[in-house]
Amino acid sequence: MTIVFYAYNTAASDPKQRGELLLSIGDTLEDVRDDLIWEGEGRELNLSDEWYDWMYASKQYDEEYFIEDPRGIPVEIREATTELLRKLAAKVWGVHPNHVAMCEVESLKIVSAPTLVATAHHLGMGIKELAEALDVRRDTMRTWVTARRDTPPWLRDELDKLITEQNKAVEWVSSRYSGEGAVRPGYPNQDDTWEDWMYVFNGYLGTTHIPARPIGWVKRVMQRVTVEKGIVL
Questions:
Q1: 55-63 long-range Cβ contacts below 8 angstroms, 24+ apart
Q2: Are 201 and 218 in contact (CB under 8 A)?
Q3: Neighbours of 130 (CB within 10 A)
Q4: Using CA atoms, how far apart are residues 107 and 230, in angstroms rounded to an integer?
Q5: Engineered SS bond to 80: which of 26, 33, 44, 65, CB 3.0-4.6 Å?
Q6: pLDDT tens-digit readout, 147-193
């Protein structure tokens, strides 16, 4: 897993850069800390003075224990914690600490707007439905699909989970129509509506602790069973 601290460049003077994603990554918190320190030095920030002011103002400064490494970085920075790194990132990036988030990801590949739209189509979901599946606001989803704001680093993992979930559903359906003990095509029966299929599928999803999915998702599963498995439903 890769640790990621990120925020959006809300302080940019150029409106086109305000949705830009600011990232600092590492295998450990210490790696992230070092990355942020070097970025701060690259931006010509005097982190020692900045952090001295913060520690003094927050009464966390103790002269007896205040020591510096060869680059003048206070020891408090060297003690990497999530809270300190969020504040360090905020200083380096010029944003409010509350706007800095942290996540751990398997894949650090940032999802582009076209890829996000294509994935929604692959899953048989509209943008509204995908937003609900990801538990994000619709307005937030709109900023992603229109490329007004970069997608967050955790999105690739969550999309992969949805794809894996649907792949399992495809296998489950195809297993009911092929091999020994297969049910006849048209199960529950050929006159059933998509709403009936939804009932069956949501029962399956309930056994896997997966939330109920919209009708478009169910239709996509059935289409994939026909196309990928060669089973006529």
A1: none
A2: yes
A3: 24
A4: 32
A5: 33
A6: 888 899 999 999 999 999 889 888 877 777 665 545 544 444 445 55
